[in-house]
Amino acid sequence: MPGDTVCKKCGTSWIVPKNLKDILSKARSSRSECYNELLSLCPKCRPQAFGERTIGEDLKKVPRRWRIPRRRVEERKPVKTDQRSGARVYKSQCYICNSGCDALVFEKDGKVIKVEGDPSSPITKGTLCCKGLASKEQLYNKDRILYPMKRIGQRGEGRWQRISWDEALDTAAERFKGIEKKYGPDSIVLATGTKRGTWPDYLMRFANAWGKQWTSTGWAQCALPRLSAGGMVLGGSAAECPDFSKTACILVWGANPTNNWPHKAVHLMDAWSAGVPMIVVDPELRETSSKADIWLQLRPGTDAALGLGFINVIIGEGLYDKEFVEKWCIGFDELKARAEEYDLDRVEKITWVPKAKIREAARLYATSKPACMMHSVGIEQNADTISSCLATVMLPALTGNLDIPGGNLFPMFQGMRGRDDTDYTLKHLITPEREKNILGAAQYPLLSSNECMLYPTSHNSTLWKTMLDGEPYPVKGIYIHGTHLAVNVANTQQVTAALRALEFIVVVDILMNSTAELADILLPAATWLERDEVACHIQASYNAIQIGQAAVRQGECRSNYAIMNGLAKRLGAENMFPPESDEPFFDFMLEKTGLTWKILKEKGGHTFPDLFRKYEKNGFNTPSRKVELVSSKMKGLGVDPLPAHREPSESPINTPELAKEYPLIITTGGRLSMYRHSEGRNIEILRELMPRPLMSIHPATAQGLGIKDGEEVVVETPRGSMEAWANLTEGIHPGVVQLPSHWSGMNNVNLVMDNQRCAPLVGSTELRCQLCRVKRKE
After folding, report:
1. Cα separation of 67 and 497, whole Å?
2. Could you please report the per-residue DSSP string of 497-552?
3. Spatial distance between the Cα atoms of 343 and 321, rounded to a whole number of angstroms
4. Could you give the CA distance from residue 529 to residue 533 in angstroms, rounded to a whole number?
5. How far is CA 486 from CA 428, 496, 501, 614, 715, in A?
6. How many angstroms separate the Cα of 65 from the Cα of each of 265, 269, 392, 772?
7. What is the tens place of the pLDDT at every residue in 505-525?
8. C-alpha angle 760-764-770 in degrees, rounded to nearest 5
9. pLDDT at residue 263 in the model
10. Strands 111-117, 88-94: parallel, antiparallel or unpaired by DSSP?
11. Backbone conformation region of residue 109, classed left if phi is above 0, alpha if psi is from -120 to 50, else beta
């Protein structure tokens, strides 16, 4: 490939970004050998070489028990002046991903000059990941959308005309009204992506005020299954809030917090460095699993069986917390009977994990007190995601680790309105007639009906099909706010065809991309550096309200709230706030807490005092007021209320004939530290860290296919083909390959992923466990 070079240390072929050559060329002195050295090493080898050059080659492995670093701690100040640079420093909240890490933004002469972690933050302890540190590069990126625009050429041709906000919003409202008049009220849908602060919840308010259904590209694949299982069993999201600071054992399941939750990884690694044992469930040896005391390398898609194996050991060996279970749990006998069906011989056969390691891990977790667990998206993209999540959320309850120091804590935002508050989301406006017409409501009630624990959304795959065939009603218009549909969703071919079939598309985004190129009207959204925000986010903290502050303004970008308010006003949607300011909305959210936006800005945020065993006052937030090991909600839906293994739709066991033609299991969706979903690849300093998608494959498997490390490969499934580069690693099973998601063009793994066979109740796609074959690209 043009621009490739071969690393002189490891022999891997890699891309040297043109801008890196330019920058180093300008910066080099007469010591040109340093310049040539940098350009001759790949990004993986460069840090090692730097260490050897500056420290020496006698680099020793860091011992397990390592002194926890002393981090700089500062007093929390909303705005201050940096004495060295003279910059104005804003305390803010980074939303370059959905974590919401506390950050400091340095502004001078109307420009952001740098972004750093916030040393006053108890959440991040002053750290910030590479994405957050590159926020300035996103802000001033050449692909930024800075002004409203309308399409003047053919769809996707890339010809635009700048227009005013009034013209853009007036045109959008007029076209949407025309479509509704011609095709009916269900002919328009809304779409959004990853939650970033509170505005995605506000989109539901907008949709309900307008009387329209909406879809979230990741909702069924990320968060909703976990939150639904936690709500039905525990009455809340304690499984999302591990207390690493006081724990005696850590269980990480289907997550790699070093990459997807770096602020949690800080606390996790502090505990690990202090000697706290860690169990990790992950099909691949990655950043977190490489530190595990016990690593359980399961077959992708078998999490429910492994969870039941844990429960079998915990109950069968009497390791559960008998006092807590007797007093606070119902359904124990039924769960015990189900777990007995999953003896470790059976679980080993299903999961490929040796039964001795399962027993060792279950015993360690159950006998360490307190112990905490965290699970993530890795268990939510299987054949039965609800079962996987039920099995994991039961573990802290069985072991008595709920809402205790060092266990799993229930969030406590003490009155701040959120997505489960009807007066915020206006969910009560979803009448039975409207609910019936939400696409997927009958088949996926925990996603698309009012049975949804949070807010109902239309089912992705059903929506694309409806756009194409007009059944059960025509869909002709879409409002896309902050999601890259042309890349982010399985079966990319179907999605892009569906979008091209529409009569009118509005896209709200930060950067130009292939979804935005399909728009008729393009609206510029502010980055987190350009907007105010108030949020309480369980992925950041279980007891804090954080703030974001606009440090600069670019072009004519508006906040997400202002954009929706402006359009709602023209559509006649009631119950919205005036578009002039976001402050009334923030005060509305904070009303029950006794705080206001002004108070929060002065304080720089607010942290509620720790409260433990909150259930002792009013019980758990379930119909029985107890932990429901047998969910009454699941019973009410007429489905099996207990976890059970469901074999993936495609597997060597379920489809042995197909497996002869496609012998490898493909798993995808693992997070990368330098990117968040489809974002970041046009930020050059991040792209240098991973210039192209790397497919993890075992050396023995690669040798049998004639594939060498770094070679370009073609991955094929019954749906089609895509391309990547081989990364040989012994950290993956010989029968499995792992591919990163959210790349574009022929590097997009969603080109080969099925979206028709979906998990019961929530409609998740099986992104972690389909079949494929791999060959060298000729």
Report:
1. 55
2. HHHHT-SEEEEEESB--TTGGG-SEEEEBP-GGGS-EEE--TTT-SSEEEEE----
3. 21
4. 10
5. 32, 6, 13, 44, 20
6. 17, 11, 29, 42
7. 999 999 999 999 999 999 999
8. 105
9. 84
10. unpaired
11. left
DSSP state of 220: T
Structure tokens at 363: 């015993």
Contacts of residue 521, defined as CB under 8 A and 6 or more positions apart, other chains included, come to 148, 149, 150, 151, 168, 171, 172, 175, 505, 506, 507
Q: Are 187 and 474 in contact (CB under 8 A)?
A: yes
For residues 539-551, one letter each, b for 16 or more C-beta atoms within 10 angstroms of the residue's C-beta and e for the rest, the string is bbbbbbbbbbbbb
Contact 13, 19 (CB under 8 A): no
Token pair in block for residue 533: 């925000």
Q: Across the chain, how many H-helices and E-strands are there?
A: 30, 28
Beta-strand relationship, 544-548 and 712-717:
unpaired
Residue (of 255, 210, 275, 291) closest to 571 by Cα position: 210
Please give the single-letter amino acid code of residue 704: G
**Nearest residue to 576 via CA among 207, 265, 235, 306:** 207
pTM: 0.91
CA distance 358 to 344: 8
Q: Tell me how far apart the alpha carbons of residues 412 and 103 are, in angstroms, rounded to a whole number.
A: 23
What is the rounded distance in angstroms from the CA atom of residue 777 to the CA atom of residue 712? 6
Compute the distance between CA of residue 697 and CA of residue 426 in angstroms, rounded to an integer.
Answer: 48
Helix (H, G, I), strand (E, B) or coil at 271: helix
What residues have CB less than 8 Å from 123, skipping those under 6 apart?
101, 102, 263, 540, 541, 544, 546
Three-class SS of 436-500: HCCCCCCCCHHHHCCCCCCCCCCCHHHHHHHHHHCCCCCCCEEEEECCCHHHHCCCHHHHHHHHH
> What are the distances in angstroms from CA 360 to CA 255, 355, 567, 722?
20, 9, 57, 40
Q: Output the six-digit token pair for 549.
A: 């502050």
- The low-confidence residues of the chain, meaning pLDDT below 50, are 1-2, 23-24, 26-33, 35, 54-55
CB atoms within 10 A of CB 381: 27
Q: For residue 183, how many C-alpha atoms fall within 13 Å in the half-sphere facing its CB?
A: 22
Name, in order, each residue with C-beta under 8 angstroms of 754's C-beta and a sequence gap of 6 or more: 490, 491, 649, 650, 717, 718, 719, 765, 766, 770
Q: Count other Cβ atoms within 10 Å, centred on residue 711.
A: 14
Q: How far apart are CA 217 and CA 202, in angstroms?
A: 16
Beta-bridged to residue 329, according to DSSP, are 627
Q: What is the CA radius of gyration of the chain?
A: 26
Domains of the chain with bracketed CATH: 4-54 (no CATH), 149-221+417-528+556-579 (3.40.50.740), 224-398 (3.40.228.10), 656-776 (2.40.40.20)
Q: 44-75: buried (b, 16+ CB within 10 Å) or exposed (e) per residue? A: ebbeebeeeeeeeeeeeeeeeeeeeeeeeeee
Two tokens at 739? Answer: 């591919």
**Contact yes or no for 606/545 (Cβ under 8 A):** yes
Give the number of other Cβ atoms within 10 Å of residue 233's Cβ: 29
CA–CA separation, 445 and 442 (whole Å): 6
Q: What is the DSSP code (8-state) at residue 185?
A: G
Give whole-number Cα distances, 351 to 39, 236, 269, 643, 669, in Å: 43, 29, 28, 15, 20
Q: Which of 252, 457, 461, 538 is nearest to 371 (CA)?
A: 252
What CA–CA distance (Å, rounded) separates 217 from 191? Answer: 7
- Classified as helix, coil or strand, 740 is coil
Residue with tokens 């990790």: 280
Say if residues 58 and 48 touch (Cβ distance below 8 Å): no
